[in-house]
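REVIEWER CHECKLIST
Item 1: Sequence provided? yes
Item 2: Single chain? yes
Item 3: Sequence as submitted:
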Amino acid sequence: MTRAIAVAALLAVAVPSSAFAQCSDADKAALMAFDKTWGDATVRGDRDFLANVIADNFMGVNLVGTVDKATTIANAVRNAELARANPQAPAVADRFVITCTPNSATITHRNVIPVPAGSMAGPTYSRSVHFLEKRGNRWQAVSSTGQPVSEQQQLVYMEMDWNDAAKNHDGAWSERNYAPFASDISSRTGAIENKVQAVESAKTNKRTFDLLELSELNTRVEGDAAVVTGVNHVKGKDAAGKAFDQRVRFTDTYIKRDGRWQVWATQGTEIR
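Item 4: Structure as written out by the authors:
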């Protein structure tokens, strides 16, 4: 089934609509670069850099309480020293949602902590929200908070990752994330594929996509089973170069195995 990208409203922090008009793509790119540089400095425990980008009145909020600037920097330095003694793959920040005005900004992103090599478990996810202010013509972090990602949110992120994989014809994603007994029913032909066939179809699909837009997402979780429903609006060109514009209502069923969600079955119906 053709996938689709996005629904930022499910993941973003609410801000006044006027803020969006003042945040250009260039502003967002600069803020994303700031966040990634800040994250790299935190990983390596760069005390001087952190002292420069974290505001003096900074407040971090975590599951056990609040921390100030000095404690935040001390924790980063300590954690970096522990990591050097026991090296592990660092978390990856992605799925950025950024809003800003000329003097303030909010950055929300996912954190993906990879699993050790050879592990069958899935990665660990969390989400961070950072609040920045421009002081002395430079951005400084004034507050930050983070939280684990719920099962429902994990599934929303998985749908988004699936979207990207479909767009890039990434069969390896299907190989990793389809259960061995998965079934995939095409919204275009009604044909049913098993995992091996679905992986091959992902690699050989000749469609190109101009628009992939997801809406009406609903997630339900019951124990180790879950269902995600929604609507895909898909525009692009087929293998012959002919334009298409479709809306597909889909049902994706997941099963949790080896501590991670895997695609169990997927089916879509085109909305006429």
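Item 5: Key structural point noted by reviewer: Residues 133 and 139 are 6 Å apart (CA to CA).
Item 6: Recommendation: ____
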